[in-house]
Amino acid sequence: MIDFSISDEVKEVISALYKFIDIEVEPLRKKFQKELENERYLYDENGVYVQEVQKALKQIREKSAQAGFYNMFGDPRLGGNGDEYGPIAVASIFERIAKKYGVDLFTMEIFPKGLFSGGLTPVLLGMNKEVMEEVLPEISSGETVLCFGLSEPDAGSDVWNIRTKAEKDGEHWVINGTKQWITNAHYAKYMMTFAITDQALVDKRQGGISCFLVPFDGETCTATSTIPALGHLGSATAIVSLDNARVHERYLIGDLHQGFGKALHGVDIGRVVLAAQCVGVAEWALEIAVNYANERKTFGTTIGNHQAIQMMLADCALDIYAGKNMLLNCAWKLEHQSEFPIKEISLTKAFCTEMVQRVVDRCMQIHGGMGLTNELKLEKAWRWARMTRVPDGTTEIQKRTIARRLLQGDMDF
Ligand SMILES: Cc1cc2nc3c(=O)[nH]c(=O)nc-3n(C[C@H](O)[C@H](O)[C@H](O)COP(=O)(O)OP(=O)(O)OC[C@H]3O[C@@H](n4cnc5c(N)ncnc54)[C@H](O)[C@@H]3O)c2cc1C
């Protein structure tokens, strides 16, 4: 029987997270109110978070790790507690946090980004034991951030088109290339770097891409510039240059030539987490809009009494109800079915990311001019929502996967 309910233990975790945010995150939000409200103070002239904000983010990660949150979904084979929480719990927790706090830089730092591009991510599985002992303590304590280096100027959707190459030189690998759109590159100590180790296998699309843990040394591996987008004055994404970056062979992660499977597995987890955040942010926005519709008056009555506003509210509810049920159904399939729900993950990622933008956009419209200001944080949520349609596979790439599965006979819903 399909059951989306969460256990009392998970409910307690959610309450504990709210408490943690009250005690550890709220004071920082107050302290950095000016930076959070005005990006001129959030970023430096290079578009990188100012030092004080970077320190605050680190503090949140470290406190989260001490409180047992940061690694609670981490891979158990790396020392995380991920075996204690199934996908329904993961989806519900991310959804509830986003529902209460919306798009919030500090709250979103409590867990590693997307659960795969940092922390005790399964992408790190297969690391050499010595390297594990060297790096896992700083990663799991939140002291060190990682980033996920797959995309390149000529390889986004088409990841087989990467150009970054790793060549063997004695006991070392020498890596050259450029990575683009790498979240956290400016703040990370290491990049999980995907590079070609066998071009012939890549040409046949049978492997040939390997994964390496490459340290940012400021010379051979450097985050060269941030990529501001959607009116932001800076961003967390950056271009990374690899110029004869040398790593010992023990920094290869997993099997040689088999890095691509790792990358895809990581991205799949990220899609579910992102969809959960989308559902939560949509609920957050609708609540604000309902409150406003009950207060704001025009033509002698609250705007909630105008049918045009009622239709927009109802359309938001239709979207959220559909998205939330898709998310939970997908999480349930991940938890209870032996076959990996590839189609459902793509359906959920595509729908929820498109859905949150529709919802936030309507909620802004309900607020009239106020919706366009940064006071209610709706415009910030709108920019975030618009962004979600691109990373972790664009909507079109999700639809491509869905159609392929249908054509292969996967007609089960
Ligand atoms: C905010 C943000 C954070 C990111 N973080 C990371 C990160 O940490 N690490 C990382 O490695 N990457 C990251 N990315 C990169 C992201 O994965 C890519 O941007 C994404 O995969 C799309 O690639 P692209 O931008 O090159 O677009 P392209 O692949 O060039 O696509 C351009 C357009 O063509 C469409 N398209 C492409 N191929 C097809 C097809 N076969 N059928 C139909 N339509 C198609 C796309 O949907 C899109 O509309 C991030 C991106 C963003 C925006």
Automatic annotation (TrEMBL):
Q: Where is the Acyl-CoA oxidase/dehydrogenase middle domain?
A: 147-244
Top-rank taxon, per record: Bacteria
Acyl-CoA dehydrogenase/oxidase C-terminal domain boundaries? 258-407
Molecular function, one GO term: oxidoreductase activity
InterPro entries for this protein? Acyl-CoA_dehydrogenase, Acyl-CoA_Oxase/DH_mid-dom, Acyl-CoA_Oxase/DH_mid-dom_sf, AcylCo_DH-like_C, AcylCo_DH/oxidase_C, AcylCoA_DH/ox_N_sf, AcylCoA_DH/oxidase_NM_dom_sf
Q: What class of enzyme is it?
A: oxidoreductase
The UniProt keyword set, sorted, is: FAD, Flavoprotein, Oxidoreductase
State the SUPFAM superfamilies in the record. Acyl-CoA dehydrogenase C-terminal domain-like, Acyl-CoA dehydrogenase NM domain-like
Report whether Oxidoreductase shows up as a keyword of the record: yes
What are the names of the required cofactors?
A: FAD
- Is Thylakoid found in the keyword set? no
- EC nos: 1.-.-.-
Family per record? Belongs to the acyl-CoA dehydrogenase family.
- Designated name of the protein: Acyl-CoA dehydrogenase family protein
Instruction: Please name the source species.
Output: Sporosarcina soli
